Amino acid sequence: MTKAWQASTLAAMVWLAAPAWAQAPIQIVPPAAQAPAPKPLKPLHRPPAKPAKPAIEQPANPAPAKPKPQPGTSKSIALPYASPGSGAAEPDLAYAAYDGGKYLTAFAEATRRVNEKGDPKAMALLGELYASGFGVPKDDQKAVAWYSLAVDRGDREAMFELAMLRLAGRGGPRDRDGAAALLERAAKLGHVAASYNLALLYLEGQQYERDFGKAAELLRSAADAGNPDAQYALATLYKEGRGVAKDLGEAMRLLGTAARAGNLDAEVEYAIALFNGTGIAKDEAGAVAWFRKAARQGSPIAQNRLARILAAGRGAPADPVAATKWHLIAKAAGEGDPWLDTFVGNLKPAEREAGEKAAKPWLAPPRT
Fold it and tell me: Which SS3 state, helix, strand or coil, does residue 3 take?
């Protein structure tokens, strides 16, 4: 998925774009007028391991880990390991090697499977290796060629990856119509990422006539398959009543599911709903927990709302030092708040200085 396509998709979906949230001193957590736009999916073959919770609240700055597959069009191709009863004659050693970062072994094994069996999964893997430059020189044209062979043999993963290359204009001219057709084919075969991205095209209204109902149908398919981005996007449709009957209860259910799966936007929206009791039982303390989590993940909105909560002592004990800290962090990220400026300005110098000191690790440039 290219950044350019993400930008054009999000810009076109103005009906979902959220304006800056109002800063009313009497309302600590004003609800968003509209939910943020759903983000194009970058699929993972499996969820990443969750990092250990730090003992001290501070921005994460881990040491560089061993590089993982991160091709330009998506984070990695889905790994179709042979399952019991699938009829596979042998374990898929090519994908096992790929998953372990042994790309030369994966390339050799995939090449053998292509030559001996004409295996479309191995063709798709060769496309991925060339697209990403893993074990072989990066070559978009060869990636397109291998993906195309796999597509001709009905491989849904190859359909999705080739669609991403077409959208990015890699290995040939940019072709949104061709990409949309590939996404549609892959979605019909049950590819979750394809369903999600195809839904975005129906929301965008360029390749297809804008159709909120069709978008909701595709998002529901991906959401039911456990995709948190689709769950969040579908929640916005239920919240606004677009393509589905307006249902705040269902919107909150989906938001909660997406939030628990780690979708940052959903965490923030769910916290807002809990704090205000919108579509769900009011729970200020529960909302604070979600705001803290999202704030630590770097959400300026959550950082600002947490600062207001700690300044007012609602849902959590008042803590002017922590309120100052989170306000300064949010403000540095562009989430200014005149009310909190005044609050911090009226604090005792020692409290203000303590808050400034606590914010410094978050404001310092990242180590390289």
Answer: helix
